[in-house]
Every structure is written in structure tokens, then in C-alpha cells.
Specification:
The complex is a heterodimer of chains A (244) and B (636).
Chain A: E1 3-11, H1 20-33, E2 50-53, E3 61-71, H2 77-87, E4 92-99, H3 105-108, E5 111-119, H4 123-135, E6 140-145, E7 148-153, E8 158-165, E9 179-187, H5 195-206, E10 215-222, H6 236-240
Parallel strand pairs in A: 3-10
Antiparallel strand pairs in A: 1-3, 1-4, 2-3, 5-9, 5-10, 6-7, 8-9
Helix pairs in contact in A: 4-5
Chain B: H1 7-10, E1 40-46, H2 50-53, H3 57-68, E2 72-78, H4 82-91, E3 109-113, H5 120-130, E4 145-149, E5 165-166, H6 172-187, H7 193-203, E6 213-217, E7 223-228, E8 237-238, E9 266-269, E10 271-272, H8 282-286, E11 291-292, H9 295-309, E12 313-317, H10 327-337, E13 344-346, H11 354-363, E14 371-377, H12 381-386, H13 393-405, E15 410-417, H14 424-445, E16 451-458, H15 475-490, E17 499-503, H16 507-516, H17 523-531, H18 545-555, H19 559-563, E18 578-579, H20 584-595, H21 613-617
Parallel strand pairs in B: 1-2, 1-3, 3-4, 4-5, 8-18, 9-12, 12-13, 14-15, 15-16, 16-17
Antiparallel strand pairs in B: 6-7, 10-11
């Protein structure tokens, strides 16, 4: 392996129903079709050197997924971005590629900004549920994990949570049901707090229960900016030459 | 009339179901054509879950060929899991195609490929979800022509009431011909309506339209005769045979799904047909004669398939791949081409001889040397003569020992249980064979680190084979023999730990037997099972033997009569009017030979034994060698 490249990609539209495993198979095949000289691990069953950082759950769209590819021959990041993007199905879109410098990419992904679109919801009701959630010191929710039902706090990891009416012109207009958008910045912790955990929290504190499934998108993930509280570009350090 | 996408109505249901990605389409190399620009529209279904159906070669080939026709379009649909089925019923979302999410009922032809009879209940789910009446006689001009193909279509009688038509044999040319008939009929303003186009199809002699045939029964329940009930409908319907595989190098653009499927590889069919003459094997009987794809076309298809798909595994498919006349050259040529590229090659290996190990060694050059599979099928020398699987015990032990000495640590042996004339001793012979294999392997390698897995399938007598007259073994006997075999293996202190044992109970084989050799009266059982909630009968977690027996009793069908009853020579069989080219007298003679332990050679290397296929169908054996070689690929 002579070079590592860090890739930001999006998972859009119906491709949001891909699981993490689906994406990794699609990527391995796209890399082969594109003729990218990916490095392989040594040993009995060699695997391409592609590692993923913090994949969004199945059913959740994302504008900010990250992975790292090791290659056996130096590649131009822009060329690789174009080749990989054209080889992947529409909806898995490669947005940015940089050459990796020192420091772990996963360590830089401190938090995510999520957008949750809810249809058929009264904006006032959503706002008061959000206020109640933010006012609570902790909100214990339960989720079914591989180890069974698990209870944890969904409040502490939520850095910001705002609510707005949808700005796409359809909200509130008949026959379209009203639509609100929640935006939240959530720190990556263990156990991970996901947008649906926050929605569960809104239901617990305020009886807030949207009638249809939420459309969730990860807008960004990265190091949390101390000033704004929002995730910054995690590849910035690679662009300027690595961690100090 | 344009058709709107159902996706906006489906999408809200997807977060609530398992593996939603299987329903969204968008596979690499999939095709979405403009609805209004096509005149003939096909919905193709593989009646099982997406993960099983997507890789199916038959559907992929027809999908590609039909979409290549300028005025024809084809989309795909698969069986939806019960979780989505319930939501679709609640929300009124009909059966949809995964390509453009169009309603199946809006298409002209709904083509369903049956590799196995266990997909019949899934056909009914799809019809019902689509809003298409289950019974062909209830359909209107607004419903598609429901057309069955695949190996199970060689006896479509159990589902005859649910089908408008069925085709036998290779689908490439007949699918195009059907498109042409439908196109002309539509261009003429659909004269005669639904029956008008069905009659045109039936008159070709290549499409079976069940409702144009009446079945008459004898007082004892046997069939008296099957006769056409309309002028112009032929009394026999023949199978289709593609004669030059090199002219049909499909799939050219293999479908690559996002969802995980059961075969994650690019497959090339290296030949069709098999004349080894194994008497239990329906595929070997109904796909004759052998037609090879040439070494150079195989090489081109592999290169193209890898490029188009990005798969890192290539499978060379056929009924007995080691029998290709140039398989050694194919194996060496491909192994040379892909050395060091992390592309692995696989060959379903069943032949029991040293040559097969040479091939396996060649194929494992680029990948792992995991396990080898051999299929002696019968546990005793006598049994193997009955089924015409010509392998001696000596051959088998020598071959497996060679595999062990060449570094293969795991060998799988495949057998069947419940074969005609089988006795307990034939099944227990499997244990002796496995122990001898391990003993010889340990002596030859000086190592105890070798294993053998015995895998057993239940035998089901199939139409168009010499065993079509045979009594199927009851499941109690099969289960008892398998228990005794298991005990014999487990209780062996010396070798038991080195021998694995995999088997299924005998009950599903009885249902498969009912559906395989059933006639039109069995349709009522299928419908009752489906109405009672029967789905996905190929999946052990969904299959219910008790439900099948309960429903058969309810509709008055005697399962034993269809399964464990031996037929006499002149009984009219439900599929006798459907012609695979096999001479009925030859099949009967082969059945008599089976009972008398008489073997028959492969006609590729010995004189013709008059099975009847070539003269009836106007076909001939097409094999190499061509003498050509695979040249190294130029690196771009």
C-alpha cells in the first residue's frame, strides 16, 4: 500500500435503504469496475483495504459518509473521485476525495448534524415537544439492540435541537399535510444516540407521535466546532497537511 | 394509457420491513424503458425471495433479450416477504416490478420461471396482490397473459388452472416469438380478445394453453385422455431447444444488486444438456442434447462479465461442468488470465475422478482451496447401477484419497435417499463408504486433519424421467433409514468425528412429489394451502407439511395416490401430451433396465441408444473440441 485516500460520499434517495454491508459490497465492485488499484490485505483470503467510519443506519440518507481506501499505486484524488463516482449507482455519490495525512479519520468524527423531516405534524406541537425535551436533564429511552432491550439517556448527547416549518413550498398547502423539519447536532457516544432515539424521547416527554415514518438525513459529521457547536469538515486537516 | 410508478405509495412501507433494499430496484445493468414507447410489455417473475430470484440466470437472460427488442420491454418482480405482503394488503399497494415499480397487472405478459414446484404458492400470492384473478377462466382482457416456464413447466398441470400458457425448454427464441405474436395481435386491434391471442400462441405448437385441452378421467381416478377442445390446437406441445449457444452469449450485462443474494458471482453457462443418463435427473433428460459453448466465447463472456459487474468470482455452470470437451483448456486459460487479480473461479464439481481434482487444483490457483464436492448419489454399487451413476467404490476412494494428498482437507459427498428399489443396506452403505474414505485418506496423508461431509437429499420421482412410473418412498421409511445412517456414523469411535452429516427430513419431498407428478386436481390443494397462509414452501421456516396434508384431505386429494403409487406402463401420465422429445418406449425400457441393474453409456462417446430426442426435435449433439486456446488478455 503506497497511499491512503479519504472519501466523502452521499447516500441519497432510495439508496438510503442500503445497509452498511450492501454499501461495502457495492463499493468493492465499483472499485474493481473503475480499475482503481486498491491494495489487498495479505493472508489466506485477501480483502480490499477499504475501511468505513461511522455508517448511517439502514433507511437513513446521508450527505456525509466517510471511508478510507488503501491503494497499491499512487492515485490522483480528483481522478479517483470521478472514476469511483461514475462506477457507483446513482444515489451513492462520491463528493470529495483527499489524500490521507496523519491522524485517524474515525477520531475526528465527534458528532453529526441530522435533519428529520416529519409529515402530517403540527409545527406548534413539534416546537413544544422540542422545548420539553431540551428542558429535561435526561430522557431515558429504550431500543432493541443485538443484546436485547437496552435503556440509555438520549438527552445528554444532543447538543442542539431546533424545529422549523418545511421551506419547500408544500408545507401546509392542501392537499399536502403540514411538514416540519427537526435539525439536531448529536455527539457520537456509546451507546450511540440516533435520531430515532431522539424521536422516541420526544414521544416520552411530550406524547409527540408523528403519523408517518420520519425521513432522516445526516447532513454533516466531523469534529465539533467549539464556537458554533456544529460539525466541521473532517477532511480539512488532510487538506492542510495533517494533524499537528 | 401510461402507468404511474407505485414507488411513492411503496416508500412509506419500506422502513417497516426487513431488508427494504430488495424492493427498490436500481441494480447495475437494469433497464427502465419508456412505457409508451413499448408495444409488448413483459413482467418477469422468479417466484421466490429477491435474494434467490435476482441471480437466476433464466430470468436475467430473458430480461436482457426482451429489452434488446426495440418495441418490447421487460421488468422484473419477485415474491415479497410476508411482512411487506401484509402492509401492501393494508395499504392497497399491488404487486409491483422492481425496475420502475409499475403494477404487474398493467403488463401484457406475466412470465413466471419455475425452477422448482415449491414456488407455486408464491405465484398465487403474486397474482392476488396484482389484482389478477387466480383462475385463468376468470380473467378479462385487462389482465396479462400468465405464462409459466422453467423446468417445472414440463408438467404444469398442477397449476394449469392458474396459467394462461406454458412453454417448455430454452426460453430465448420462444420469448421473442411470443412477443412477435402479441405485437401483431395488438397491432390488428386485439381480434378475438384474450382467447384470440392465446389461440394464436397455441396454434404455433410451441406454447401450451391448458384451457384448450380437456382432461378426461377413468372411474378409478387415472387419466383417460387429454384432448384439445378447439380446432387448430395441436394434440402435442413440444419443447424448445437453442442450438447454437455461441449465438446467445447472455447475460452480456449481468445484474448486480445492492442487496445480498445467494450467488454473489458472475456465472457463465458452459454448455446445456447432459447425456450422462442419470435416471433420477430430470434436468439431464429434458435438456438434451448436449450443446457446448466454445472455449473462446466462454473466455469472452468471462472477461466481459467481470468488466460489467465487478464481481470477483466466476462460476462455470452446466449440469456436469467437467464434461465440457475442452474444460482443461478453459480451466488453465482462465487461471492464467486471472492469476494475481483476486478473481476466483469455481466449478460445481460432481464427477468422481482424478481429472476433476486436476481441474479443482487449477481453479484454486487464484483463490482458496476449501472443499471439493463429489456426487456418487447412491450408497451401494447396486444402487448406483439402478440410477446409472457409473462410479465404483474403488474409483471413489481413490479419487477422494488423491484429493486429500493434494492438500484438500474437506471433501463433501452427496447422496440421495429414497431411490427406487432402495433397501436399508443401500443407505447404510453410505456410512461404510465414508469410513473407508477417511481410513484411506488418513493412511495416504499420514494426517488426521481430513474431513468428509455426507450430505443427503430426498429423492423425488420427476416427469419425463425413467423414474416417472416409480413409487416414491414414504417419508417414514426415508426418515428411519437416515436415523440409522446417522447413528452408524455417530457411534463410530474411530472415524465418526471426521465425518459430518447433513440431511433433511423426508416430509418436504412428499409435497414436492405431489406437485411434480400431480395433475390438474392437485391445483385445488395448492389453492387451499395458499388460502390457509402457505407461502415460501422452499423455506423450512415457512413450509408446513401438516398444512399441505390437511388441505389435501379437505379438497379430497389422496396424496399417496400421487406419490407412493407405482404407475403401470400404459397409464396416461398428466404430462404425456407435453413433449420433451424423449421416446416413451425408451423411457420405459430405461426404467426396466434400472430395476435390472443395467447401465447405459453416455451417447457423446458411444453410439446413440435412441432416447428419441434428436430425431423428434431435429437437434444433434454439439461438442468440441474446437482446438482453440484462450490467449492472455491485454492489460489496458
Amino acid at each position: 500500500m503506497v497511499q491512503r485516500l479519504r472519501v466523502r460520499y452521499a447516500k441519497r434517495g432510495r439508496l438510503r435503504f442500503t445497509s452498511h454491508r450492501d454499501i461495502s459490497r457495492a463499493l468493492e465492485r465499483a472499485v474493481r469496475r473503475a480499475g482503481i488499484p486498491v491494495a489487498y490485505s495479505a493472508g489466506f483470503s485477501p480483502h480490499p483495504k477499504i475501511s468505513y467510519a461511522g455508517a448511517a443506519p439502514t433507511g437513513v440518507a446521508s450527505e456525509a459518509e466517510y471511508l478510507e481506501i488503501g491503494v497499491s499505486r499512487a492515485c490522483d484524488p480528483q481522478r479517483l473521485r470521478a472514476d469511483l463516482d461514475s462506477s457507483l449507482p446513482p444515489g451513492l455519490d462520491v463528493l470529495d476525495v483527499v489524500e490521507a495525512h496523519a491522524g485517524s479519520l474515525a477520531d475526528r468524527l465527534e458528532g453529526s448534524m441530522w435533519e428529520v423531516r416529519l409529515t402530517g405534524v403540527d409545527p406548534g406541537e413539534a416546537a413544544s415537544a422540542v422545548a420539553a425535551f431540551l428542558a429535561a436533564p435526561s430522557v431515558e429511552v429504550e431500543r432493541l439492540t443485538k443484546k436485547g432491550m437496552r435503556a440509555f439517556d438520549a438527552r445528554q448527547a444532543v447538543q442542539t435541537l431546533t424545529v422549523a416549518a418545511a421551506a419547500d413550498g408544500t408545507a401546509g398547502q392542501e392537499p399536502f399535510p403540514s411538514c416540519v423539519i427537526l435539525r439536531m447536532v448529536v455527539r457520537h457516544e456509546t451507546p450511540a444516540v440516533r435520531p430515532d432515539d431522539v424521536l422516541m424521547g420526544l414521544r416520552l416527554v411530550a406524547g409527540f407521535a408523528p403519523p408517518s415514518p420520519p425521513a432522516v438525513t445526516r447532513l454533516a459529521q466531523g469534529p465539533l466546532d467549539a464556537m458554533t457547536g456544529e460539525p466541521a469538515d473532517p477532511l480539512e486537516l488532510d487538506r492542510v497537511g495533517g494533524d499537528l | 394509457m401510461s402507468v404511474e410508478s407505485l414507488f411513492p405509495r411503496l416508500e412509506p412501507l419500506l422502513p417497516k420491513v426487513q431488508k427494504p433494499i430488495q424492493y427498490v430496484g436500481g441494480e447495475l445493468n437494469s433497464t427502465v424503458k419508456d412505457w409508451d414507447e413499448a408495444t409488448v410489455r413483459w413482467a418477469l417473475m422468479y417466484p421466490d425471495a429477491y435474494e434467490v430470484g435476482l441471480p437466476n440466470q433464466g430470468v436475467q437472460i430473458l430480461y436482457e433479450i426482451l429489452n434488446e427488442l426495440p418495441d418490447t420491454m421487460a421488468e422484473r418482480t419477485y415474491a415479497v416477504w410476508p411482512d411487506l405482503e401484509a402492509l401492501m394488503r393494508a395499504e392497497g399497494v399491488p404487486q409491483f416490478t422492481v425496475d420502475a415499480h409499475r403494477p404487474v397487472r398493467a403488463f401484457d405478459v406475466f412470465g413466471v420461471s419455475f425452477s422448482t414446484e415449491l414456488g407455486y404458492t408464491n405465484l398465487l400470492t403474486a397474482l392476488d396482490l396484482a389484482g389478477i384473478p387466480l383462475h385463468a377462466v376468470d380473467r378479462t382482457d385487462d389482465d396479462p397473459i400468465v405464462l409459466a416456464g422453467g423446468h417445472a413447466a414440463f408438467n404444469p398441470e398442477p397449476i394449469a388452472d392458474f396459467l394462461d400458457a406454458a412453454v417448455l425448454g430454452d426460453g430465448e427464441q420462444i420469448a421473442i416469438a411470443i412477443s412477435e405474436v402479441v405485437r401483431e395481435w395488438k397491432a390488428e386491434g386485439e381480434p378475438g380478445g384474450r382467447d384470440g391471442v392465446l389461440l394464436r400462441l397455441a396454434e404455433t405448437g410451441g406454447v401450451y394453453v391448458p384451457k384448450f385441452y380437456d382432461v378426461e378421467y377413468l372411474a378409478d381416478g387415472r387419466i383417460k385422455r387429454v384432448v384439445p377442445n378447439r380446432a387448430g390446437v395441436p394434440s402435442r406441445v413440444f419443447k424448445h431447444t437453442v442450438m447454437d449457444l455461441d449465438e446467445w452469449p447472455y447475460p452480456k450485462k449481468p445484474l448486480v444488486p445492492l442487496a445480498e443474494t445467494v450467488h454473489e458471482r458472475f456465472s457463465v453457462e458452459i454448455f446445456r444438456g447432459c447425456t450422462r443418463g442419470c435416471r433420477f435427473c430430470q434436468a439431464g433428460m429434458i435438456t438434451r442434447p448436449v450443446r457446448e459453448r466454445s472455449i473462446t466465447v466462454i473466455g469472452d463472456m468471462v472477461a466481459n462479465g467481470i468488466k460489467e459487474s465487478g464481481f470477483n468470482e466466476v462460476g462455470l455452470l452446466s449440469l456436469s461442468s467437467a464434461d465440457h470437451s475442452e474444460i482443461a483448456e478453459v480451466a488453465k486459460g482462465l487461471a492464467d488470465r486471472y492469476e494475481g487479480t483476486n478473481t476466483s473461479l469455481s466449478l460445481p464439481s460432481t464427477r468422481v475422478d482424478a481429472f476433476n481434482i486436476d481441474l479443482a487444483n487449477e481453479f484454486s490457483r487464484n483463490g482458496r482451496r476449501s472443499g471439493l464436492t463429489f456426487a456418487p448419489e447412491g450408497g451401494s454399487e447396486r444402487m448406483r447401477k439402478v440410477i446409472n451413476k457409473m462410479v465404483t467404490e474403488e474409483d471413489l476412494i481413490r479419487t477422494v484419497t488423491t484429493a486429500y494428498t493434494q492438500g484438500w482437507r474437506q471433501v463433501k459427498l452427496y447422496f440421495m435417499c429414497g431411490l427406487p428399489t432402495e433397501e436399508d443396506i443401500d443407505v447404510l452403505g453410505i456410512a461404510d463408504l465414508a469410513k473407508k474414505v477417511i481410513k484411506a485418506g488418513r493412511e495416504a496423508t499420514g494426517s488426521r486433519d481430513i474431513r468428509c461431509t455426507v450430505s443427503i437429499g430426498g429423492f423425488v420421482p420427476k416427469p419425463h424421467t425413467p423414474f416417472q412410473w416409480a413409487a416414491q418412498c414414504d417419508h417414514e421409511t426415508v426418515d428411519r433409514r437416515l436415523r440409522e445412517l446417522r447413528n452408524s456414523l455417530r457411534n463410530d469411535k474411530q472415524y465418526g468425528k471426521a465425518i459430518g452429516f447433513r440431511y433433511h427430513d423426508g416430509k418436504p419431498s412428499i409435497v414436492e412429489g405431489l406437485l411434480s407428478r400431480g395433475d390438474r386436481r392437485v391445483g385445488a390443494v395448492i389453492e387451499a394451502v395458499w388460502a390457509d397462509g402457505g407461502r415460501f414452501d422452499g423455506w423450512s421456516e415457512h413450509f408446513s407439511y401438516e398444512r399441505w396434508m390437511k388441505c389435501a384431505a379437505q379438497v379430497g386429494v389422496d396424496v399417496d395416490w400421487f406419490t407412493t403409487r407405482e404407475r403401470e406402463e400404459h397409464e396416461v401420465l398428466p404430462w404425456d401430451h407435453l413433449d420433451a422429445g424423449l421416446d416413451r418406449e425408451w423411457l420405459w425400457q430405461d426404467w426396466q433396465d434400472a430395476v435390472n441393474d443395467v447401465e447405459v453409456e453416455d451417447c457423446r462417446w458411444t453410439p446413440c441408444y435412441d432416447c428419441g430426442v434428436c430425431p423428434t426435435m431435429g437437434t444433434e449433439i454439439q461438442i468440441g473440441p474446437t482446438g482453440r486456446k484462450l490467449l492472455p488478455l491485454t492489460v489496458v
